[in-house]
Design brief:
Shape: elongated
Strand order of the largest sheet: 5-4-6-3-7-8-9-10
Number of helices: 13
Mean pLDDT: 80
Strand content: 5-15%
Bound molecules: guanosine-5'-diphosphate, magnesium ion
Low-confidence stretches: 15-29, 32-73, 81-98
Number of strands: 10
Structural class: alpha/beta
Length: 395
Protein backbone atom coordinates (compact mmCIF):
# COMPACT_ATOMS: atom_id res chain seq x y z
CA UNK A 1 0.00 0.00 0.00
CA UNK A 2 1.14 3.53 -0.72
CA UNK A 3 0.60 6.22 1.86
CA UNK A 4 -0.51 9.56 0.55
CA UNK A 5 -1.93 12.76 1.94
CA UNK A 6 -5.36 13.87 0.84
CA UNK A 7 -8.02 16.25 2.00
CA UNK A 8 -10.06 15.33 5.04
CA UNK A 9 -13.74 15.61 4.20
CA UNK A 10 -17.11 14.40 5.36
CA UNK A 11 -17.21 10.64 5.07
CA UNK A 12 -18.53 9.03 1.91
CA UNK A 13 -21.39 7.35 3.81
CA UNK A 14 -22.57 10.82 4.68
CA UNK A 15 -22.56 11.85 1.03
CA UNK A 16 -24.40 8.65 0.11
CA UNK A 17 -27.00 9.35 2.77
CA UNK A 18 -27.46 12.74 1.19
CA UNK A 19 -28.31 11.25 -2.14
CA UNK A 20 -30.75 8.72 -0.75
CA UNK A 21 -32.44 10.94 1.77
CA UNK A 22 -35.79 12.60 1.26
CA UNK A 23 -35.87 16.36 0.68
CA UNK A 24 -36.45 17.01 4.34
CA UNK A 25 -33.76 14.76 5.73
CA UNK A 26 -31.48 15.83 2.94
CA UNK A 27 -31.72 19.37 4.18
CA UNK A 28 -30.77 18.34 7.70
CA UNK A 29 -27.94 16.19 6.46
CA UNK A 30 -26.74 19.03 4.30
CA UNK A 31 -26.53 21.38 7.25
CA UNK A 32 -24.52 18.75 9.04
CA UNK A 33 -22.25 18.20 6.09
CA UNK A 34 -21.68 21.90 5.59
CA UNK A 35 -20.88 22.31 9.28
CA UNK A 36 -18.39 19.52 8.97
CA UNK A 37 -17.02 21.13 5.85
CA UNK A 38 -16.58 24.52 7.45
CA UNK A 39 -14.20 23.00 9.92
CA UNK A 40 -11.94 21.83 7.14
CA UNK A 41 -12.50 24.61 4.63
CA UNK A 42 -9.61 26.74 3.55
CA UNK A 43 -10.04 30.34 2.47
CA UNK A 44 -11.67 30.68 -0.94
CA UNK A 45 -9.58 32.41 -3.58
CA UNK A 46 -10.99 35.70 -4.79
CA UNK A 47 -13.52 36.00 -7.59
CA UNK A 48 -12.90 34.29 -10.90
CA UNK A 49 -11.76 36.27 -13.90
CA UNK A 50 -14.31 37.13 -16.60
CA UNK A 51 -14.97 33.98 -18.60
CA UNK A 52 -13.11 31.57 -16.37
CA UNK A 53 -16.46 30.41 -15.17
CA UNK A 54 -16.38 27.65 -12.65
CA UNK A 55 -18.42 24.59 -13.45
CA UNK A 56 -19.14 21.78 -11.05
CA UNK A 57 -18.07 18.35 -12.26
CA UNK A 58 -21.63 17.25 -12.92
CA UNK A 59 -22.53 20.47 -14.71
CA UNK A 60 -19.36 20.21 -16.73
CA UNK A 61 -20.29 16.68 -17.76
CA UNK A 62 -23.64 17.82 -19.02
CA UNK A 63 -22.18 20.86 -20.71
CA UNK A 64 -21.16 19.05 -23.86
CA UNK A 65 -21.39 22.15 -26.00
CA UNK A 66 -21.68 25.18 -23.82
CA UNK A 67 -22.94 28.16 -25.84
CA UNK A 68 -20.07 30.49 -26.61
CA UNK A 69 -21.17 33.74 -25.12
CA UNK A 70 -20.27 36.62 -27.37
CA UNK A 71 -19.42 38.91 -24.52
CA UNK A 72 -17.47 36.40 -22.55
CA UNK A 73 -14.19 36.85 -24.35
CA UNK A 74 -11.74 34.09 -23.72
CA UNK A 75 -9.40 35.14 -20.93
CA UNK A 76 -5.82 35.56 -21.95
CA UNK A 77 -4.10 34.12 -18.97
CA UNK A 78 -0.93 36.15 -19.43
CA UNK A 79 -2.83 39.41 -19.32
CA UNK A 80 -5.12 38.72 -16.37
CA UNK A 81 -4.89 41.59 -13.92
CA UNK A 82 -3.11 40.45 -10.80
CA UNK A 83 -5.93 41.31 -8.43
CA UNK A 84 -8.34 39.19 -10.45
CA UNK A 85 -6.03 36.26 -10.92
CA UNK A 86 -5.38 35.07 -7.38
CA UNK A 87 -1.65 34.91 -7.21
CA UNK A 88 -0.70 32.46 -4.49
CA UNK A 89 2.80 32.72 -3.21
CA UNK A 90 4.43 29.60 -1.86
CA UNK A 91 3.56 30.54 1.73
CA UNK A 92 -0.08 31.06 0.92
CA UNK A 93 -0.52 27.62 -0.57
CA UNK A 94 -2.04 25.59 2.24
CA UNK A 95 0.53 23.44 3.95
CA UNK A 96 0.07 20.20 5.79
CA UNK A 97 -2.30 20.64 8.70
CA UNK A 98 -5.44 19.11 10.18
CA UNK A 99 -7.24 19.48 6.87
CA UNK A 100 -5.10 16.75 5.48
CA UNK A 101 -5.10 13.05 6.33
CA UNK A 102 -2.77 10.23 5.49
CA UNK A 103 -4.47 7.57 3.43
CA UNK A 104 -3.49 4.38 1.73
CA UNK A 105 -4.19 3.56 -1.87
CA UNK A 106 -3.99 0.08 -3.32
CA UNK A 107 -0.73 -0.80 -4.95
CA UNK A 108 -1.02 -1.68 -8.61
CA UNK A 109 1.54 -4.30 -9.49
CA UNK A 110 3.29 -5.08 -12.71
CA UNK A 111 2.39 -8.73 -12.24
CA UNK A 112 2.78 -10.58 -15.52
CA UNK A 113 2.82 -7.38 -17.55
CA UNK A 114 6.52 -7.68 -18.40
CA UNK A 115 7.70 -10.16 -20.97
CA UNK A 116 10.73 -12.28 -20.21
CA UNK A 117 13.92 -11.62 -22.16
CA UNK A 118 14.60 -15.30 -22.52
CA UNK A 119 12.94 -17.99 -24.56
CA UNK A 120 15.51 -20.56 -23.47
CA UNK A 121 18.19 -20.92 -20.81
CA UNK A 122 20.29 -17.88 -20.02
CA UNK A 123 23.62 -18.08 -21.81
CA UNK A 124 26.03 -15.22 -21.05
CA UNK A 125 27.44 -15.48 -24.57
CA UNK A 126 24.04 -14.48 -26.01
CA UNK A 127 23.12 -11.92 -23.41
CA UNK A 128 24.51 -8.82 -25.11
CA UNK A 129 22.50 -9.49 -28.28
CA UNK A 130 19.37 -10.25 -26.32
CA UNK A 131 19.66 -6.99 -24.41
CA UNK A 132 20.29 -5.05 -27.62
CA UNK A 133 17.22 -6.56 -29.24
CA UNK A 134 15.18 -5.64 -26.19
CA UNK A 135 16.15 -1.97 -26.59
CA UNK A 136 18.51 -1.63 -23.66
CA UNK A 137 20.85 0.34 -25.92
CA UNK A 138 24.42 -0.47 -26.89
CA UNK A 139 26.30 0.82 -23.88
CA UNK A 140 23.98 -0.73 -21.32
CA UNK A 141 23.92 -4.07 -23.14
CA UNK A 142 27.72 -4.27 -23.03
CA UNK A 143 27.95 -3.11 -19.42
CA UNK A 144 25.25 -5.40 -18.07
CA UNK A 145 26.74 -8.42 -19.84
CA UNK A 146 30.17 -7.62 -18.45
CA UNK A 147 28.79 -7.12 -14.97
CA UNK A 148 26.99 -10.45 -15.11
CA UNK A 149 30.11 -12.23 -16.34
CA UNK A 150 32.11 -10.78 -13.46
CA UNK A 151 29.43 -11.56 -10.88
CA UNK A 152 29.13 -15.13 -12.16
CA UNK A 153 32.89 -15.64 -11.91
CA UNK A 154 32.97 -14.20 -8.42
CA UNK A 155 30.09 -16.29 -7.09
CA UNK A 156 30.71 -19.40 -9.16
CA UNK A 157 27.17 -19.23 -10.57
CA UNK A 158 26.68 -21.38 -13.65
CA UNK A 159 23.14 -22.75 -13.67
CA UNK A 160 20.31 -21.03 -15.49
CA UNK A 161 18.48 -20.29 -12.23
CA UNK A 162 21.58 -18.82 -10.57
CA UNK A 163 22.39 -16.64 -13.55
CA UNK A 164 18.83 -15.33 -13.77
CA UNK A 165 18.92 -14.41 -10.11
CA UNK A 166 22.26 -12.62 -10.51
CA UNK A 167 20.98 -10.73 -13.54
CA UNK A 168 17.82 -9.76 -11.69
CA UNK A 169 19.79 -8.36 -8.75
CA UNK A 170 22.07 -6.50 -11.11
CA UNK A 171 19.15 -4.88 -12.93
CA UNK A 172 17.45 -3.93 -9.67
CA UNK A 173 20.62 -2.30 -8.39
CA UNK A 174 20.85 -0.25 -11.58
CA UNK A 175 17.19 0.72 -11.71
CA UNK A 176 16.26 1.42 -8.13
CA UNK A 177 15.66 5.10 -7.38
CA UNK A 178 14.41 6.94 -4.35
CA UNK A 179 12.14 9.20 -6.37
CA UNK A 180 9.97 6.75 -8.27
CA UNK A 181 6.79 7.31 -6.25
CA UNK A 182 4.20 9.83 -7.40
CA UNK A 183 4.35 13.07 -5.48
CA UNK A 184 1.02 12.87 -3.68
CA UNK A 185 2.43 13.31 -0.25
CA UNK A 186 3.34 16.90 0.43
CA UNK A 187 -0.15 17.80 1.62
CA UNK A 188 -0.35 21.02 -0.41
CA UNK A 189 -3.75 20.61 -1.98
CA UNK A 190 -4.97 20.50 -4.63
CA UNK A 191 -2.12 18.61 -6.21
CA UNK A 192 -1.66 19.47 -9.87
CA UNK A 193 -0.32 17.07 -12.47
CA UNK A 194 0.50 18.10 -16.03
CA UNK A 195 0.59 15.26 -18.51
CA UNK A 196 2.72 15.79 -21.62
CA UNK A 197 3.98 13.74 -24.55
CA UNK A 198 3.52 13.21 -28.28
CA UNK A 199 0.15 12.39 -29.79
CA UNK A 200 -0.90 8.79 -29.41
CA UNK A 201 1.55 8.05 -26.59
CA UNK A 202 -1.28 7.35 -24.18
CA UNK A 203 -1.67 10.59 -22.20
CA UNK A 204 -5.45 10.65 -22.07
CA UNK A 205 -5.69 6.94 -21.32
CA UNK A 206 -3.16 7.25 -18.50
CA UNK A 207 -5.10 10.16 -17.01
CA UNK A 208 -8.27 8.05 -17.11
CA UNK A 209 -6.55 5.20 -15.30
CA UNK A 210 -5.09 7.51 -12.66
CA UNK A 211 -8.42 9.24 -12.14
CA UNK A 212 -10.15 5.91 -11.58
CA UNK A 213 -7.51 4.72 -9.14
CA UNK A 214 -7.74 7.94 -7.14
CA UNK A 215 -11.55 8.12 -7.27
CA UNK A 216 -11.72 4.53 -6.02
CA UNK A 217 -9.75 5.74 -3.03
CA UNK A 218 -12.33 8.53 -2.58
CA UNK A 219 -10.12 11.25 -3.88
CA UNK A 220 -11.88 14.19 -5.48
CA UNK A 221 -10.41 14.50 -8.96
CA UNK A 222 -10.82 17.23 -11.58
CA UNK A 223 -9.54 16.67 -15.12
CA UNK A 224 -8.64 19.50 -17.48
CA UNK A 225 -9.03 19.04 -21.24
CA UNK A 226 -6.24 21.36 -22.32
CA UNK A 227 -5.76 19.40 -25.55
CA UNK A 228 -8.23 21.80 -27.09
CA UNK A 229 -7.57 21.41 -30.80
CA UNK A 230 -9.62 18.31 -31.48
CA UNK A 231 -13.14 17.94 -30.18
CA UNK A 232 -12.57 14.18 -30.20
CA UNK A 233 -9.71 14.55 -27.73
CA UNK A 234 -11.95 16.45 -25.35
CA UNK A 235 -14.73 13.87 -25.69
CA UNK A 236 -12.25 11.09 -25.03
CA UNK A 237 -11.19 12.71 -21.76
CA UNK A 238 -14.85 13.32 -20.86
CA UNK A 239 -15.56 9.62 -21.31
CA UNK A 240 -12.76 8.76 -18.91
CA UNK A 241 -14.04 11.38 -16.46
CA UNK A 242 -17.46 9.75 -16.56
CA UNK A 243 -16.04 6.28 -16.09
CA UNK A 244 -13.90 7.34 -13.16
CA UNK A 245 -16.37 9.73 -11.52
CA UNK A 246 -14.01 12.69 -11.91
CA UNK A 247 -15.02 16.25 -12.70
CA UNK A 248 -13.89 17.79 -15.96
CA UNK A 249 -13.26 21.26 -17.37
CA UNK A 250 -13.75 21.42 -21.12
CA UNK A 251 -12.76 24.24 -23.44
CA UNK A 252 -15.66 26.49 -24.32
CA UNK A 253 -14.82 26.15 -27.99
CA UNK A 254 -12.37 24.24 -30.20
CA UNK A 255 -8.90 25.67 -30.05
CA UNK A 256 -9.46 27.69 -26.88
CA UNK A 257 -6.21 28.73 -25.27
CA UNK A 258 -5.04 25.59 -23.43
CA UNK A 259 -3.60 27.76 -20.66
CA UNK A 260 -7.02 29.20 -19.86
CA UNK A 261 -8.47 25.67 -19.62
CA UNK A 262 -5.62 24.76 -17.27
CA UNK A 263 -6.35 27.86 -15.21
CA UNK A 264 -10.05 27.02 -14.99
CA UNK A 265 -9.27 23.43 -14.06
CA UNK A 266 -7.20 24.45 -11.06
CA UNK A 267 -9.78 27.06 -10.19
CA UNK A 268 -12.54 24.43 -10.13
CA UNK A 269 -10.33 22.07 -8.12
CA UNK A 270 -9.84 24.79 -5.50
CA UNK A 271 -13.51 25.75 -5.50
CA UNK A 272 -14.62 22.13 -5.05
CA UNK A 273 -11.98 21.34 -2.44
CA UNK A 274 -10.69 18.68 -4.79
CA UNK A 275 -7.57 16.73 -3.96
CA UNK A 276 -6.05 16.77 -7.40
CA UNK A 277 -6.30 18.39 -10.82
CA UNK A 278 -4.85 16.44 -13.75
CA UNK A 279 -4.32 18.39 -16.94
CA UNK A 280 -4.22 16.76 -20.37
CA UNK A 281 -2.17 18.59 -23.01
CA UNK A 282 -1.77 18.49 -26.77
CA UNK A 283 1.21 16.65 -28.20
CA UNK A 284 0.86 17.85 -31.71
CA UNK A 285 3.04 20.92 -31.58
CA UNK A 286 5.15 21.53 -34.64
CA UNK A 287 8.48 22.42 -33.14
CA UNK A 288 10.36 22.88 -29.94
CA UNK A 289 9.63 26.58 -29.72
CA UNK A 290 5.86 26.05 -30.01
CA UNK A 291 6.03 23.31 -27.45
CA UNK A 292 8.06 25.39 -25.06
CA UNK A 293 5.76 28.38 -25.46
CA UNK A 294 2.62 26.38 -24.92
CA UNK A 295 3.80 24.31 -21.96
CA UNK A 296 5.36 27.40 -20.40
CA UNK A 297 2.09 29.27 -20.70
CA UNK A 298 0.13 26.39 -19.16
CA UNK A 299 2.62 26.18 -16.32
CA UNK A 300 2.38 29.89 -15.56
CA UNK A 301 -1.44 29.71 -15.67
CA UNK A 302 -1.47 26.88 -13.14
CA UNK A 303 1.08 28.54 -10.90
CA UNK A 304 -1.12 31.59 -10.48
CA UNK A 305 -3.21 29.42 -8.15
CA UNK A 306 -1.31 26.32 -7.13
CA UNK A 307 1.96 24.50 -7.39
CA UNK A 308 2.63 21.80 -9.94
CA UNK A 309 3.41 18.49 -8.27
CA UNK A 310 4.24 16.40 -11.27
CA UNK A 311 4.95 16.90 -14.94
CA UNK A 312 4.52 13.39 -16.28
CA UNK A 313 6.00 12.63 -19.67
CA UNK A 314 4.13 9.80 -21.37
CA UNK A 315 6.18 7.61 -23.70
CA UNK A 316 5.00 4.78 -25.93
CA UNK A 317 7.32 1.83 -25.26
CA UNK A 318 6.63 0.35 -28.69
CA UNK A 319 8.36 3.25 -30.43
CA UNK A 320 11.68 1.86 -29.21
CA UNK A 321 14.83 3.95 -29.43
CA UNK A 322 12.93 6.74 -31.23
CA UNK A 323 11.16 7.33 -27.97
CA UNK A 324 14.41 8.52 -26.44
CA UNK A 325 15.00 11.43 -28.80
CA UNK A 326 11.33 12.43 -28.50
CA UNK A 327 11.55 12.28 -24.75
CA UNK A 328 14.72 14.38 -24.74
CA UNK A 329 12.92 17.12 -26.66
CA UNK A 330 10.24 17.25 -23.99
CA UNK A 331 12.64 17.22 -21.08
CA UNK A 332 14.41 20.20 -22.60
CA UNK A 333 11.27 22.33 -22.63
CA UNK A 334 9.19 21.07 -19.71
CA UNK A 335 10.36 20.44 -16.18
CA UNK A 336 9.54 16.76 -16.41
CA UNK A 337 9.43 15.05 -13.01
CA UNK A 338 8.58 11.52 -14.04
CA UNK A 339 8.05 9.16 -16.94
CA UNK A 340 5.01 7.06 -17.76
CA UNK A 341 5.87 4.16 -20.09
CA UNK A 342 2.77 2.94 -21.88
CA UNK A 343 2.02 -0.12 -24.02
CA UNK A 344 4.50 -2.39 -22.30
CA UNK A 345 1.93 -5.11 -22.95
CA UNK A 346 2.54 -4.69 -26.66
CA UNK A 347 6.29 -5.07 -26.75
CA UNK A 348 9.01 -7.56 -26.02
CA UNK A 349 11.38 -4.61 -25.87
CA UNK A 350 11.07 -3.89 -22.18
CA UNK A 351 14.66 -2.67 -22.10
CA UNK A 352 13.39 0.71 -23.26
CA UNK A 353 12.30 1.36 -19.67
CA UNK A 354 15.87 0.88 -18.57
CA UNK A 355 17.28 2.99 -21.40
CA UNK A 356 14.85 5.87 -20.81
CA UNK A 357 15.41 6.01 -17.08
CA UNK A 358 19.18 5.94 -17.47
CA UNK A 359 19.50 8.27 -20.43
CA UNK A 360 17.08 10.89 -19.18
CA UNK A 361 18.08 10.45 -15.56
CA UNK A 362 14.42 10.64 -14.62
CA UNK A 363 12.37 8.09 -12.70
CA UNK A 364 9.88 5.90 -14.52
CA UNK A 365 6.89 6.26 -12.18
CA UNK A 366 4.08 4.46 -13.94
CA UNK A 367 3.70 1.92 -16.67
CA UNK A 368 0.74 1.14 -18.90
CA UNK A 369 0.07 -2.51 -19.57
CA UNK A 370 -3.16 -2.41 -21.58
CA UNK A 371 -6.05 -0.28 -22.74
CA UNK A 372 -8.36 -1.07 -19.83
CA UNK A 373 -9.05 1.30 -16.96
CA UNK A 374 -7.09 -0.83 -14.49
CA UNK A 375 -4.21 -1.65 -16.81
CA UNK A 376 -1.43 0.30 -15.21
CA UNK A 377 1.10 -0.21 -12.49
CA UNK A 378 3.53 1.69 -10.38
CA UNK A 379 7.00 1.07 -11.53
CA UNK A 380 8.99 -1.21 -9.29
CA UNK A 381 12.57 -2.09 -10.22
CA UNK A 382 12.21 -5.41 -8.41
CA UNK A 383 9.03 -6.50 -10.19
CA UNK A 384 10.27 -5.24 -13.52
CA UNK A 385 13.58 -7.08 -13.28
CA UNK A 386 11.80 -10.23 -12.08
CA UNK A 387 9.54 -10.08 -15.14
CA UNK A 388 12.50 -9.68 -17.48
CA UNK A 389 14.34 -12.73 -16.17
CA UNK A 390 11.25 -14.84 -15.48
CA UNK A 391 11.13 -18.41 -16.58
CA UNK A 392 7.75 -18.69 -18.20
CA UNK A 393 6.18 -21.97 -19.26
CA UNK A 394 7.79 -22.94 -22.54
CA UNK A 395 11.16 -21.28 -21.96
P1 LIG B 1 -2.73 10.54 -26.34
O1 LIG B 1 -2.85 11.05 -27.73
O2 LIG B 1 -1.31 10.66 -25.84
O3 LIG B 1 -3.71 11.11 -25.40
O4 LIG B 1 -2.99 8.94 -26.42
P2 LIG B 1 -4.31 8.14 -26.04
O5 LIG B 1 -4.50 8.08 -24.58
O6 LIG B 1 -5.42 8.63 -26.87
O7 LIG B 1 -3.88 6.66 -26.50
C1 LIG B 1 -3.59 6.33 -27.83
C2 LIG B 1 -3.89 4.84 -28.04
O8 LIG B 1 -3.03 4.05 -27.26
C3 LIG B 1 -5.30 4.47 -27.62
O9 LIG B 1 -5.82 3.57 -28.57
C4 LIG B 1 -5.11 3.76 -26.29
O10 LIG B 1 -6.10 2.80 -26.03
C5 LIG B 1 -3.76 3.12 -26.48
N1 LIG B 1 -3.07 2.89 -25.21
C6 LIG B 1 -2.78 3.78 -24.23
N2 LIG B 1 -2.10 3.20 -23.22
C7 LIG B 1 -1.94 1.89 -23.56
C8 LIG B 1 -1.30 0.76 -22.94
O11 LIG B 1 -0.72 0.81 -21.85
N3 LIG B 1 -1.37 -0.43 -23.62
C9 LIG B 1 -1.99 -0.54 -24.84
N4 LIG B 1 -1.98 -1.74 -25.42
N5 LIG B 1 -2.58 0.50 -25.44
C10 LIG B 1 -2.56 1.70 -24.83
MG1 LIG C 1 -5.10 12.60 -25.80
Amino acid sequence: MFKFLKRLRAKKEEADTLELATAETAEKAQTKASEAKQVIDKPEPSAAPAAAEAVSPREADEHKNPPASENAAQPDIESLPQEEAPDFTQEEIPTRDEQVIEVELPKRSLGDGIRSLFTSSLDIEDLEDILLLADFGVEASVEITEDLRRAAQKTGATSDAELRLLLKDLLVARLNREDSQLNLSDGKLPYVFLVVGVNGAGKTTTIGKLAKWLSDGEWEVVLGAADTFRAAAVDQLATWAERSGAGIVRPERDGQDPASVAYQTVELAIKNDADIAIIDTAGRLQNKKDLMDELGKIRRAVEKQAQINEVLLVIDATTGQNAISQAKAFTEVADVTGIVMTKLDGTAKGGIVYAIQKQLDLPVKLVGVGEGINDFAFFSAEEFAKGLVARKPGN
